[in-house]
Amino acid sequence: MSATLHRLAGTSPSLDPMIDLVAEDMAAVNRVIVDRMRSEIPLIPELAGHLIAGGGKRLRPMLTLAGARLLGYGGTRHHLLAAAVEFIHTATLLHDDVVDGSDLRRGKRTANIIWGNPASVLVGDFLFSRSFELMVEGGSLRALEILSNASAVIAEGEVNQLTAVRRIDLGEERYLDIIGAKTAALFAAACRIAAVVADRGEAEELALDSYGRNLGIAFQLVDDAIDYTSDSGTMGKDAGDDFREGKMTLPVILAYARGGEDERAFWRDAVSGRRAGDEEFAQAVALVRQSRAVDDTFARARHYGQLAIDSLAAFPGSAAKDSMIEAVEFAVARAY
Amino acid sequence: MSATLHRLAGTSPSLDPMIDLVAEDMAAVNRVIVDRMRSEIPLIPELAGHLIAGGGKRLRPMLTLAGARLLGYGGTRHHLLAAAVEFIHTATLLHDDVVDGSDLRRGKRTANIIWGNPASVLVGDFLFSRSFELMVEGGSLRALEILSNASAVIAEGEVNQLTAVRRIDLGEERYLDIIGAKTAALFAAACRIAAVVADRGEAEELALDSYGRNLGIAFQLVDDAIDYTSDSGTMGKDAGDDFREGKMTLPVILAYARGGEDERAFWRDAVSGRRAGDEEFAQAVALVRQSRAVDDTFARARHYGQLAIDSLAAFPGSAAKDSMIEAVEFAVARAY
């Protein structure tokens, strides 16, 4: 089977093969997650559970589990690490929603709206600390190194994004730096630790890192494109959130770069927050379509998706490999 | 020399002996701190540096260094860990100021006032992640275990405190749980890791843990008492902050428990936030003095200080031991 995105045309790609592949491992990871969310302070499991039980795909820990399968690892050492990955992700989401002032995530009211910003900040800190306890228990200094480094890179990416808000002149390169850090670093680390757990060498570590990193970039590109498509039900967040927050994402960067004087003036006004209501959002959607900025954002996503798939080339064919390829196809096809 | 707090009467205790003892090590720790605060995102060193360079005593990393000296350890393995301890502490302060909406710390405007809450949350996350990178580099899974556990306990304590705000019926026991977690856990861990670095056994670990924990409780009790004394210049934060935020600390808990009907009504109103202006704060100060609640908070601090000193009993006399005893005396004498 030639592994390319052209398979897309024939089938409707899905995460189901990966979900089935790791179902047993994921049940064990879920037990760890539920167990380690516990605390004598009732607010902690209540708030954390709202998000953790709230319909997330658990894509990141699933990647750790699938990666281990790809390498033929059949043990359980990675269960604690996969739970740690999900805790890092959840802590990040809690803090993100505070930073962005979001009120909706995965179709539900955000924790900061229900319990307030202070509780979201502190429970995020708790989950983050717990994730490190889990990693320590996992017992691998190498995995700890990879995940603690990813955590620092994520935080750096978030600060970078914060300082990039309302910067109309951001440019694609810095945008890619930001999403590479805030999103792709954890995807990469989640995959890479599978090679550590399976006691493989640097080549396998790098291949899995590259798979995760490129998948993460593709994933974020599609998320950012969907924010400018009319039907945003797939995201479970408010369409136009990025627009209203003045967040510079690739659709805007491309539309601004390609626009004439009038269009550039519109984007400057909108991104600055001076004119960013519903009417302007409708106009923004029209402009990103007209300039093919959304189509090309999806095209970029397919490019990175292909890089992710190519990273797996050296691994022999297996159900695990097929599921990882299809996960990429699913990620880039979410828009259609 | 009999090590008791009665030495207080004769001398004016100071941190200087400890500062002198570890000066060379602390210079190395400071180099690590400055080096690891760096980032390509300029906001990170700018914001972190505001707090880290901002006149803190670096008491917690100093305790790691002094503890190592107490055990005769002359290496450098603890420098990275001591820097990690300071990063955890700084991250906590950044998030605390967001949670409390504070505007003054160590006599300076807080980072959240200057750069906003989002930046403080994210740079706190960055420092927290960096602290784990430093610990991993330190290479000791046992030290990682102690510090990651302390981090989770701190976050739990902060959430516990948040849910205790404006709870007039809090009680001394739960208050002690809160400060034991949010403050004393990091003091305990900072001291305990010295025994790990010096390759000592459980007895030394526990003795140093107990020293740090009791010192931390004493330290927080004095901080909480000072908030109800008229001259709060020593704290560098606004006197009456705890009062205005409805934070239940021991002076209030004792004054409420000892008060008659009228006084209890006053405290209920004040803690609920209905009447908590300058006039009420003046009345609160009068009431905590009248009921000896502040005096007895200081007395509790001396009790825990004595426990800290007694934890060192088994260690032979040395300049390190003397400096650690005097640090306790300094902590409990700050009010006088």
Structural account:
Two copies of one chain form a homodimer. With 336 residues, the first copy, chain A, is an all-alpha fold. Chain A has one domain: Farnesyl Diphosphate Synthase, CATH 1.10.600.10. Chain A is 71% helix and 1% strand. The first copy, chain A, has 16 helices and two strands. Chain A has a two-stranded antiparallel sheet with strand order 1-2. In chain A, helix 4 packs antiparallel against helix 16 and helix 12 packs across helix 15. Chain A is globular and about 60 Å long. The two termini of chain A are 24 Å apart. The model of chain A has no long low-confidence stretch (mean pLDDT 92). At the A-B interface, helix 5, helix 7 and helix 8 of A face helix 5, helix 7 and helix 8 of B.
